[in-house]
Amino acid sequence: MTESAYRVETTARLAQWRIDNLASFTYRKSDPFKIGKWYWHLVVEKNKVFLVKLYPEISNLTRENPPIASFIIRAVCSAGDRKAFIHPEIRDKQLKNNDHFVWAVEVPLTGKLIIDVEFLDLKIASPDGGEPSSIWPEGSTESQSNATALEYLGRMLTEGIHTDITINASDGSIGAHRAILAARSPVFRSMFSHDLKEKELSTINISDMSIEAVQAFLSYIYGNIQHEEFLTHRLALLGAADKYDISDLKEACHESLLDDIDVRNVLERLQNASLYQLPKLKSSCMRYLVKFGKIYDIRDEFNAFLHSADMELVAEIFHEILNAWKGF
């Protein structure tokens, strides 16, 4: 048996184990793979019934902070019509050992198999007995608002203290400060340094963004954006970061969009990755669609996407598909 036969491929929240052939009366345990803070194992057993087990590797971390997991697990026959058997969604189940999640698949499975685990959330118990907390709710964006200096800078925006420029969004206006905008964006600096209409009229028109998105954009620039606000508007923020050349915001959006790719958003993110030249996001979306076989779960949406997408991007997708077919 080759080493790769036990390897589980992963993205940030997805684990997939491909098994070439599972003979009768067989036990097989995967290599450890990391999702979140923990290393995990998958086990398949085929005897009178077919069993699938998922559990974290035993360690001090698991003993002290066992994961409370929400996930969807599937067993897919990769040959023929790729019939999938899906366990009902698991919500907030604490996993400590190999007996805490056991799935008995009622239909006998043979041939090439894919065991697919999509982690929806991972939590740890609160040390003071409160509600468990997710390990994934926050990113670096919220931490930028912690310092006192940033708090007062944010007040300049929210309270409109001595604003000297007006930003017109598609559905409203908000005041801001030339100096802060110019310091954060070379595009804004150029607007205010040359005899352009923005300098003369003291206005900037951003008609392709809503007032809420513009407020989120300014909140990031002023250092007081909240995590939920960032998540809600990150696609609009990505476009603004690219347009106004704010590289740290563009990278923050890029990294965030990598974290929760799923069948509902993968095509939109692939399109944006191509539009804004985000190689890691494009690669992750391609891998999710092709290597992990999610392209089969959204066939109708994918066919519609092919008719509207850039031809160069379509060609890249088919190149990935052809390479995947060669390997499996």
UniProtKB/TrEMBL annotation:
Residues 163-222 form the BTB domain. CDD domains: BTB_POZ_ZBTB_KLHL-like (cd18186). It comes from the Eukaryota. SUPFAM superfamilies: POZ domain. InterPro entries: AtSIBP1-like (IPR044714), BTB/POZ_dom (IPR000210), SKP1/BTB/POZ_sf (IPR011333). Pathway: Protein modification; protein ubiquitination. Pfam families: BTB (PF00651). This is BTB domain-containing protein. It comes from Rubroshorea leprosula. The lineage of its organism: Eukaryota, Viridiplantae, Streptophyta, Embryophyta, Tracheophyta.
